[in-house]
Amino acid sequence: MRFTTYSVTVAASLISTVSATASLSQVCTTAYAKAHLPTNPFGITIDPNSIQVSAVQNYTAADSTNYPGGSFDYCNVTLAYSHNGLNDSVLLTYWMPAPAAFKKRYLSTGGGGLAINSGASSLAGGLLYGAVAGETDGGFGSFSTQFDAVFLLANGTVNWNSVYMFGYKAHYELAEIGKAFTKVFYNMTSSQKLYSYYQACSEGGREGFSQVQRYGGEFDGAIIGAPAFRYSFQQANHLYSNLVEKDVGYYPPSCEFEKIVNLTIAACDPLDGKTDGVVSRSDLCKLHVNWDSFVGQEYYCAASTGGGNGPFKRAVSSTISRAGGSLPTSSTGSTTGQATGTTGGAGGAGGAGGGMGGFGGGTTTPAQNGTVTKKGVEVVRLISRGLQDLTGKQVYLSYQPATSIVDGATTYNATSKTWGLDISGLGGEWIVRFLNLIDSSTLSNLDGWTYNTLRDYMIQGLEMYSDSLQTDWPDLTTFQKSGGKILHYHGESDNSIPTASSVRYYESVRQIMYPGESFSASTECLQEWYRLFLVPGAAHCGPNTLQPNGPFPQTNLQVMIEWVENGVVPKTLNATVLQGQYKGKNEQICAWPQRPLWKNGVMSCVFDQTSYNSWQYKLDGIKVPVY
Ligand code: CA
Q: How many angstroms does the Cα of residue 589 sit away from the middle of ligand 1?
């Protein structure tokens, strides 16, 4: 595979002097920005007349999952460019620190769900560390227009330019233009080093890997959470839980799901050596949980109104297009931080999202009073097992036990007073729009489907998008040779992207890049520049309300800056409890393949072969390698 690279040179004649003591108001003008544009990159024309500039004083970013809060001034610069030969327009926004606060850093940020950016909530993270922070609209028409809105030109006709932009091109251009613009804007000399970073989660994590896999040297450090990579499998897999319910012939009430998950958490919490409400060893949980012991346990949930926001209920319809949580637009940022959406559940609640189901606001779910059934437990056990074809061969991996159930969320019919199928919105749209090329977000039923149907759709997606959306290239040699670092993290109770998906990719990179080396030697080599951290109890790209005492790695950008600029290797990952009675407490997260184990209140990072093996899936239901 070859990739085109191009360099962006600076038009020296345009440079006027700006010292670090220049004020924001001196540089934050349209005239200054226009006079400090980089020269056009290969194949691209920047429109000087598109530039819009505004100075913002005393912006306050609230404490977020991705950065501690803070205040700063910045210059908001938006510009447009087009691809030569295409009559298109791509918008970029850069938040530029005041010259005195600029620390020779650039940060690209990514999206979530079917969005290619996360707006202000992610840009603020860069400014707190003296970085210029950028986002792109992908050429989709506006910063709030998502990929699915522009993917089809007509039924049956794909807008392939949008696919490649979403797949990887838009992010490459965002970073190349952003880095060049930063150097001119702050009058850096050619010999001065501009450190470049990437930070995003979920779909934004996939976007990050799309760069790391193709472009060595683009970023010095990439912070990637719960990436939605191996896209054809990941997106279709949202329908697996619905198929399990269809297969078992049982649609558990939301309260029964909740009870089973809470019983699992309670049973598995102590296996890590510390009874704190957090399943820090979901692998031990998988090995030892006794599902059958939950049968017959009583549950009760009070009546509730509305379809959204509970951990076991789908989001209301207004969040469908954002696929798991609308993006914060508040100028104060968001407590759930960037990219909460992605391919499914909202991070914070470990729950709602991705739904298109029949229950919007105003609908009442009745009080639920019952006992856990054998069939309910069987549904949860099969969800945890992962997709197998009709002959029992494993096709794909799945969520860890103790994870809340989002894909499998059911819907209550007030007329028939029964619970029934609620097709995952993300999974459904993937099949209808992106595979069947029909301009609709809704898959109406699963009539005639078997597990093999889902397998075949996974293979079809692989064939259609292996060079654009799939993002599973396991050879990162060019990135590694350029000195790049990767900080990859994934919540251990992620309910939208299976934690095991990150483990599989990490292990694939290890085996592809260090063939013939022993397990420990290859792991040691990989950890010099690429480290994976599984976050105990965390949900999708955020803390988990069901396991509130778990930590979250809030200071990742600071950690990465220390690693890249000062050589401080994150042997463990710094994290903070962000909610509940221990809010603010510092914890450290072990680097994979080591796992945490507490004894007398003291954590050790240990390796345990049986636990390690529980993360590995032999995907013999697919005949080509699955990285
Ligand atoms: Ca525990």
A: 13
